[in-house]
Backbone:
């Protein structure tokens, strides 16, 4: 089949007015051009990657850019590993013999447990304050507890102000009584 196609191609080239030698020469030239284009495209791709990572690419070859990219990626990988280790230490997880995915899964489980504990504590506080907790998230419960506490604080402040007014009224009445008694004593004398 290949021979048939190539012979048809040669036949069409011969009768089409193009010689086989010139057709072959053009293909090798096109191959060189495409090779140069490919290296240029590779350079552009590497430069784009480098710019994303904040690497200066002026006057550097593809190999130099590639080396710097690999170094930067290794640095990022080390940073993410350090972050993962830090999170694991924060949540009290042992990393020995565990893969990256296993560590992530364990961290997620521990986070979920902590969230459940937090939600349980908030639910307990909310029930003490008389707030219904059914179907509410931790954030909603927190806001309602905060609002309830603010209401209670406002009530306390209002009672304090009311008590202060009552004390002031009593003090005024007492002062008025004393003034009346003194006025009576002066009138008697």
Residues:
């Amino acid at each position: 089949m290949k021979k048939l196609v190539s012979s048809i191609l040669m036949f069409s080239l011969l009768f089409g007015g193009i010689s086989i030698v010139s057709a072959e020469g053009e293909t090798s030239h096109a191959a060189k051009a495409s090779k140069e284009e490919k290296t240029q495209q590779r350079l552009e791709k590497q430069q784009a990657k480098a710019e994303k990572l904040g690497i200066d690419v002026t006057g550097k070859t593809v190999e130099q850019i590639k080396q710097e990219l690999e170094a930067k990626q290794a640095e990022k990988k080390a940073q993410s590993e350090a972050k993962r280790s830090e999170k694991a230490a924060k949540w009290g997880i042992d990393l020995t013999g565990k893969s990256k995915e296993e560590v992530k899964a364990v961290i997620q489980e521990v986070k979920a447990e902590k969230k459940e504990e937090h939600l349980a504590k908030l639910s307990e506080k909310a029930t003490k304050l008389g707030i219904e907790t059914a179907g509410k998230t931790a954030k909603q419960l927190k806001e309602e507890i905060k609002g309830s506490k603010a209401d209670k604080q406002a009530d306390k402040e209002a009672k304090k102000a009311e008590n202060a007014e009552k004390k002031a009224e009593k003090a005024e009445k007492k002062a008025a009584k004393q003034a009346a008694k003194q006025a009576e004593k002066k009138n008697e004398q």
